[in-house]
Each structure stands twice: as structure tokens, then as C-alpha cells.
Automatic annotation (TrEMBL):
Alphabetized UniProt keyword annotations: Hydrolase, Membrane, Transmembrane, Transmembrane helix
Keyword Transcription regulation (UniProt): no
Superkingdom to which the source organism belongs: Bacteria
Name by which UniProt lists this protein: Membrane-bound metal-dependent hydrolase YbcI (DUF457 family)
One Pfam short name: YdjM
Oxidoreductase recorded as keyword: no
Length: 194
């Protein structure tokens, strides 16, 4: 894939997952509220990368700094909503940064999850970022939910369940392949030692 296109879908996946999480929790009674809710969630989904790559700013990809990043966005969001409690924005923003960005990154590439206490990077490596099986269902779910306007969260919940199922499937496939490779490798070593 074209590297720019890959980057675009990578960022889109983060933004969509962040926005979808915000959609589940934040007020969206009017069009204005809906737009603020989606922008706030999408911003949470991409904020760790705004501070730079993991090699430049490892702290932004650490779960220990997630509440702090979310705090800034929650504060910004609260400026637009007067009646809703700040705790709700903070909680929702934490979830959007955590799942919309860090979880997705962890599934695709390495993550310094406990920086600065540990430099160890964690990676599941089950999906490639920009995977259409992530952004396509999410955009369909979000699109349908917006179209149905407040009547139902069903399309969005369905799209979340779909991508969770897909990720679990990818993790299991990866484990099976790795085990098979290990078995073959052992067989190969044995046959060459005899
Ligand atoms: Zn990232």
C-alpha cells in the first residue's frame, strides 16, 4: 500500500475508534453537541501521535500518562458543555485515548506502555494498522448511528463487537501459526542433529 494511504487509514482508525467511544458516553442531543462529542473523541484517538512518534515522545504512548492527556481534552470539551459533569468527560476521554489509540497501537506495533518506569516495549502484532476490517465497520456503525439520530446505539455497539471479534480471531490465528512454526522448527533441528 502507498505509505501515505497507509498512514491515512492508520490515523483514521484511531480517530474513528476514539469518536465511537465518545459517542457511547457523551451528550449528543443536538447537532452541535454531536459534533463536539465526535471531535473530542477523535482528538483523544490521535493525541498520543500529535506529540510525536513513539521514539520521539515515548511518554505519550505510556498508559501512565493517559489520564493527563485525557485531562487536557476533557477540559477543552467541558468548555462547550455547561451542564454535564467534568468527571464524565474525563472518564470518557481516558477510554478514548486508551482504546482508541494505545490498545490499537499495541495490536499493531510496539508500545512503551509503562514509560518512564520501564523502557520495555509491548506488542501483540495481531493486526496491521490501517486494516480495513477496523476502520470500515467503525465508519459504517458510526454513520448509521448518526443517521438514526439518538434512536439506537445498536449499529455502533455492533461495530465495536465486530472489531473485538475480529481482533480476537487475529490473535488466535497468530498463536496457532506461531505454535506450528515452533513445532516445525523443533522437528527441523531434531532431524539435523541425528
Ligand atoms: Zn501511536
Amino acid at each position: 500500500m502507498d505509505p501515505y494511504l497507509y498512514l491515512f487509514f492508520h490515523v483514521l482508525s484511531h480517530a474513528l475508534l476514539g469518536a465511537v467511544i465518545a459517542y457511547c458516553f457523551l451528550p449528543r442531543a443536538t447537532w452541535k453537541d454531536l459534533m463536539i462529542c465526535l471531535c473530542s473523541g477523535a482528538l483523544c484517538g490521535i493525541i498520543p501521535d500529535i506529540f510525536g512518534d513513539r521514539s520521539v515522545a515515548p511518554w505519550s504512548h505510556s498508559i501512565l500518562f493517559t489520564p493527563l492527556l485525557a485531562l487536557g481534552i476533557a477540559y477543552l470539551t467541558k468548555l462547550f458543555y455547561k451542564k454535564t459533569s467534568f468527571k464524565l468527560f474525563w472518564g470518557s476521554s481516558i477510554l478514548s485515548v486508551l482504546f482508541g489509540h494505545l490498545f490499537l497501537d499495541y495490536m499493531g506495533h510496539d508500545l512503551p506502555a509503562f514509560y518512564p518506569f520501564s523502557d520495555k516495549s509491548y506488542i501483540m502484532g495481531a493486526i496491521t494498522l490501517g486494516d480495513p476490517w477496523i476502520w470500515f465497520p467503525l465508519s459504517m456503525g458510526l454513520g448509521l448511528s448518526i443517521f438514526l439520530r439518538n434512536k439506537s446505539k445498536l449499529p455502533i455497539i455492533t461495530s465495536i463487537l465486530f472489531i473485538v471479534g475480529y481482533i480476537v480471531f487475529r490473535i488466535i490465528s497468530k498463536e496457532i501459526i506461531e505454535q506450528k512454526v515452533q513445532v516445525q522448527h523443533k522437528k527441523f533441528l531434531k532431524s539435523h542433529m541425528l
